[in-house]
Every structure is written in C-alpha cells, then in structure tokens.
Amino acid sequence: MLAYAFVAQTPAVDEAMISGIEQAGIEQAPNFQPLYRQIRLLILKRLAKNTWRPGEMLPSETKLAQQFRVSQGTVRKALDELAGQNLVVRQQGKGTFVAQHTPHRALFHFFHLVGDDGSRKLPESRLISCASGRAEPRERECLALSSRAHVVRIRRVRSLDATPVIVESICVPAAQFQGLTDASPAELPNTLYAFYEQRFQVVIAHAVERLKAVSANAEEVRLLKLPRGAPLLEIERIALGHEHNPIEWRRSRCHTDNCHYLNELD
Amino acid sequence: MLAYAFVAQTPAVDEAMISGIEQAGIEQAPNFQPLYRQIRLLILKRLAKNTWRPGEMLPSETKLAQQFRVSQGTVRKALDELAGQNLVVRQQGKGTFVAQHTPHRALFHFFHLVGDDGSRKLPESRLISCASGRAEPRERECLALSSRAHVVRIRRVRSLDATPVIVESICVPAAQFQGLTDASPAELPNTLYAFYEQRFQVVIAHAVERLKAVSANAEEVRLLKLPRGAPLLEIERIALGHEHNPIEWRRSRCHTDNCHYLNELD
DNA sequence: GAGTGGTCTAGACCACAGC
DNA sequence: CTGTGGTCTAGACCACTCG
Q1: Which domains does chain B carry?
Q2: What pLDDT shows up at residue B7?
Q3: How far is the CA of A65 from the C1' of C2 (A)?
Q4: Which side of chain A, N or C, has fewer Cβ within a 10 Å radius?
C-alpha cells in the first residue's frame, strides 16, 4: 500500500514531486506512482518548460539516472514510455532527442487523408487570409481563452495533385503567436507545426480530431469547384501542448471523392 | 552483425523459428531479431492457432521462460509488447489472458462514434436482412476470397437514443461462418465480435477504417428519415485476424448531426 | 576509442488474487 | 500461504555513431 513513495534511501527524485502526499491521515486515495512514472513526469515537466528545444539531445540515461538517484533501468523505462508517445525519439548510438515536427511526422501522425489508391501526400496550401481579432465564444471555448483574448485566424485551400480538396480554417491565440499576422504569406509554410516550434517556441504534442459529414456551403462550392450541397468530410482538430493545453483549433472540410481518412484500430 | 541469432548455449527457442537463416553465405539481409521479439512471434503464432481460447490464461512468465529457455525478463518484454497491442491482457496477481471482445473493448477500441455532448454509447441494432450468396468482385477483393467463394451479408440499422443513425452492411466469408444465416435474428447480438469468437472461433485482432463523406441514397433516406441527399459519414472497415488476414468487411453510413467520429493523434 | 542506446540476464522485493 | 504479474536494481555484453 505504501509502495513506490520513496524507494532509495535518500529522497531520490526531489523537486517536490510527490505532490500528492497529504498529512490528513486516513484512507487518502493513494496517488503513489512507480518510480519510473515519477521520473517520466519529471522529464515531461522539463519538456513542457522547454528545458531542451525540439531536436535537442537529452542527457544520457546514465546522466539522468545519476541526477534522479535511480538506476539506469528505471530511467530507461521512463524514456521508453515517452518514446511510445512520440514525445522523444531514441537513436541507438546517438542519444535521446526531443521530438520534432518533421514532414514525416506531419504525414504519418498528423495527416490521415490518404488517396484512394493508397498514396500518401501532404497537400499544397494556398493562403486565403490571415488576420487577428477578438475571439468569438466558440473560439474561446475551444482554446480555453478569457473573454477579452484575441486570436489569429488563417484560412487556406489545400490541393492534392493540383486539385483543391480542402478548405481549412485555423485559429490560434494571438498572445502565443505575436507577429504571426505580420509574417508574409509566402512565409507561412505548408506544415505549420514545425513553424510554430521554430518561430514561436510553441510545441504541439497531441491532438484530438472529430469528424462529421456536412454539406458544402456556397464558399466551399466555389473554392473546391463542387456541385451545390456536395458532401464534405469535416475534420475538427484541437491541437494540444505537453500539458494538454489547447493551442490550435482547426477545421478542415474535405472533398473525399478521391481520398479518404485512414485510421487503424486494435 | 551476427547478434541475436542464438544467445543461449542451447538453441533456445526451437520450433524452427529462425526461419530466415540461409545457408547462402554472403550479405544476406539480416532478419535477425532480438530474442524477445522472437519469443513474441512464437506466442503470436500460438494465439493465431487458437492454442488458448480468448479469455483463457497463458502460462505464467516463469513457465514460458522455462519452455523457451530464456530468462523471465525476456518473456516479460515479449508479453508487454503483446499487451500493448491489446492482444493479451495482464492482471497483477492473476495472470496473462488472451484478449477478449468485451462490451468495453467494443466501445473504446472499435467504436469511435461519440455523441456531440461527449456521451459514449453502443447503438442498438435492428436486423434488416441476413443471407448468403456468391461473393461479388468487390467483396472478394476486400476479403481476399477466391472466385467461387460465398459470403454472408448482414444489414442492420443502428440507433442511438432510439433515433436511427447508422445503416450498416456487413460481409463475412461463409466458409468461416457456417450456420450464421441459420442463427435466429434475435440471436445476432449487438456486438458481433464477441459472437464471432464464441460461436465460430474467429478472432478479430485488428481493423482498418476508411472514412468518406457521401450523400444518402434513397434507402438510407427512408431508413434514417433524412432529407434527400443528406450528407452521411461512411465508415468502411476491414477487420483482421491475428495474422492480418481479412475476416469481415463492413460499411457503416452514419448520420452525424448529433454525433461525431473521435480520433486521438500524437 | 569513447559514448550512446539496446538486449539479456539474475535476483530481490512488492502488490495483488485466491484458496 | 502460494502463485501471479509489477518494480527496481546491477552488471555484462552488443550495436551503432562519431571523432
């Protein structure tokens, strides 16, 4: 029952991490965690604090083990879990690195639209608009913003094989993206998350997508050259940081006659 | 370079498992695997062979380690990977069990439609038809069947909160499901995969889903009480066995005004 | 060669389930 | 009490990378 609170003779893992221990004595729900999970949390906090930049190497397992006063195997298990969540990348002979948003990651982890022939490509993007303004209620809700917060809104059309197939609306808090509206349209890259990382030190770690079928509205009909009321696949995504804090709200409406959204289950 | 082929003094892991070793000497692409992966494959083969039934307990780590002549930690790592794929379930103090299709698994791993209010429910099913016939080309393609194979086709309407929202077509090879058409309609349960397991010893281990937006056809309009041409979310699923052999082809067309398909990314 | 992560082993101890 | 999986440790050796 008292397991895993303190294992090493010395406090091990200091940093005020055992935050759940109460002095109230009785029947407290035990939020004790195995050592390797406590280590994992400590490393996660450092990731969230940007202690190391994306792409940078973490200290070696041995060094971390010394710092935390645990065995190397325990650190390994913590790092393995983080690697399983794609938060760090491990490379034999080189080291453990903070995960980065590469084109490969965009394609295989964050973009699930695949051609009906099985082809996987990132669509080209054409910017329509990029401007800031007071956040609307829905935007505040999705991004957990206060009532006077401002946001930056980006709209673009994305094409696969030179055919426009997606109308995309993106919304991010202006506070975390100072100067985004000043960026020249040509500067806004196709894969935004790497851009967020490099330009604004904002790291997207997770995302949740919600899909519906909708009818194309007048603008979508025009932009995608569709018949009136054509069915579109709406993908609404909320992208989250390391602490699951919402960072970006995105709505993509996709013409899926020649492509589909692919998902693997177990 | 020669690592991991044989580690223990005795051959360890017999069963003719090192199938990739060629007598041709030079520059063979090494399909050497770490020991724990070889162990994992052996256990996987036993799962595929139905050596143990779903829900049954596997031998303990210690016993498996003795059988395979490796250390318990190596078996543990193999089992951990299998547990990560939801192919086995580990329970402290009890044992390791072959994964089963429970209502919980259906709801959280195989059914991604969620109410817009966040509610997760399995929809009720009403059977429309269940009959067998010669497999059509598309069915043969999806299920990897020969040209004279027969299939069983099931159609049903599924309702959330007493509102019909899904029209579902299911197709399985008749050969693996002898007597399915004789089953009384009342006997066909809402969650089919548990039924497949228990009645036909057919185990669904994975699945791939492809989503599109489509327009409701006349029948769907009637069954779901929709306006003509209403947009529907089409979910096409191919369910696979342990060896990734296709077992079921399913197409669900969903009315998503009050629900959505939920997917989490990393 | 030095440093990194990856594998394998062995042993100790813990938590949990069930008789 | 016994047997199970879960954690933690320690040490040996391997493969890979880079200077």
Answers
A1: 15-98 (1.10.10.10), 103-261 (3.40.1410.10)
A2: 37
A3: 19
A4: N
State how far the Cα of B152 lies from the Cα of B173, in Å rounded to an integer: 6
DSSP secondary structure string, B53-104? -TTPBPPPHHHHHHHHTS-HHHHHHHHHHHHHTTSEEEETTTEEEE----HH
**Any CB–CB contact under 8 A between A264 and chain B?**
yes
Q: What is the mean pLDDT of residues B178-206?
A: 91
What token pair was written down for A70? Answer: 């645990």
* pLDDT value of residue A63: 96
Output the pLDDT for position B187: 82
Contact list, A206 vs chain B (CB under 8 Å): 264-266
Of B206, B232, B260, the CB nearest to A211: B260
| pLDDT at residue A20 in the model | 36
Between helices B35-48 and B72-84, what is the axis angle to 10°? 60
Dist CA B156 CA B145 (whole Å):
24
Please state the rounded mean pLDDT for residues B97-115.
96
* Chain A residues 129-168 within 7 Å (CB) of strand D: none
Q: pLDDT of B17-53, one tens digit each?
A: 433 333 333 334 445 789 999 999 999 999 999 999 9
A212 — contact with chain B (CB < 8 Å)?
Answer: yes
Query: How high does pLDDT run on average in chain B?
Result: 89
Question: Closest chain B residue to A118 measured between Cα atoms?
Answer: B210
Strand D at less than 7 A from CB of A70:
yes
Of B47, B39, B34, nearest in space to B206 by CA: B47
- Long-range CB pairs of B212-216 (<8 Å, 24+ gap) are B212/A233, B212/A256, B212/A260, B212/A261, B212/B236, B213/A213, B213/A214, B213/A231, B213/A232, B213/A233, B213/A234, B213/A254, B213/A256, B214/A213, B214/A231, B214/B253, B215/A230, B215/A231, B216/B253, B216/B255
pLDDT digits (tens, 9 = 90+) for B238-263: 999 999 999 999 999 999 999 999 99
Range B1-12 average pLDDT: 39
Instruction: Give the nearest nucleotide to B90, CA to C1'.
Output: D5
B7 touches strand C (CB under 7 A): yes
User: What is the spatial distance, in angstroms and rounded to an integer, between the CA atom of B12 and the C1' atom of C19?
Assistant: 35
For chain A (length 266 residues), average pLDDT per consecutive 10?
38 41 38 89 96 97 96 97 97 97 95 96 95 97 97 97 97 96 82 95 97 98 97 98 97 98 96
Which residues 96-135 of B are in CB contact (within 8 Å) with A?
109-110, 112
A211 and chain B in contact, CB less than 8 A: yes
Task: Supply the pTM of this predicted model.
Answer: 0.90
How far apart are the CA of A177 and the nearest CA of chain B, in angstroms? 22
Q: Check pLDDT > 50 for residue B151.
A: yes
